[in-house]
Amino acid sequence: ISTNIKVIDDNLYGGIAIGKITELVGLSGTGKTQLWQLCLNVQIPKRLGGLEGKALYIDTKKDFNPATLRGLAIALEQQFLKKTAGNFKSSTMIKNVHYVDCSNTAQLVASIFNLKRYMRANPSIKLIVVDSLPFSIRMLENVWERTKLLMELHDSIQQLLCNYFVAVVVTNELGYYRIRRKWRLRTILGDQHTTLINERIWLTKNAYYIGKTLKRRKLLTSI
């Protein structure tokens, strides 16, 4: 699934991969447009190099913006207008983005645990977006409970990837942690989560990076 960012697509051999978990990391205000664009790009017809699928968007932060999605859909319709003879409609694209509102931990857990059932009912879905994964999990005060829940969610997602032709994109957040008397910026969900994702893309306001850790990430391009 193309990200519409050439340097990222080139490094990922075409874009977001089916059968894998790709994570987008960034501070507030970065990366949201890319998520909504992915929900539209997954719908590009097969004869034009797309998957001709649908998207499921699980929203834990209530950041989803239908007006922005509509604007992006209109732009994509115009981009492929001549090649599709007007049959690739923005109105249809918007309807093909299934939306789930998860305002608390219980709703997030229920949504992810029910993904297999949802996929059976909607086999044309080729992209699942969870924005954001840590937002609801952090509501749990007990660290052990948070870790246990995160591992259960990962197990459910891995089972889904083994049985369905779908890509999973999650967003993570950054926070400051005190390590050896110094405050360091790192991803919220920690090392166990890092080992279970396949790709991590860092989106900033002035650069794109790729790599699982802050120290080992590779600069793709400066904006």
TrEMBL record:
Molecular-function GO term, any one: crossover junction DNA endonuclease activity
InterPro entries: HR_Repair_Mediator (IPR052093), P-loop_NTPase (IPR027417), Rad51_C (IPR013632), RecA_ATP-bd (IPR020588)
Location within or outside the cell: Nucleus
Superkingdom classification of source: Eukaryota
CC terms in the record's Gene Ontology section: Rad51B-Rad51C-Rad51D-XRCC2 complex; Rad51C-XRCC3 complex; replication fork
Any single biological process term in GO: meiotic DNA recombinase assembly
Residues in RecA family profile domain copies: 1-174
Keywords recorded for this protein, A-Z: ATP-binding, DNA damage, DNA repair, Nucleotide-binding, Nucleus
Protein name, UniProt field: DNA repair protein RAD51 homolog 3
Organism whose genome encodes this protein: Drosophila rubida
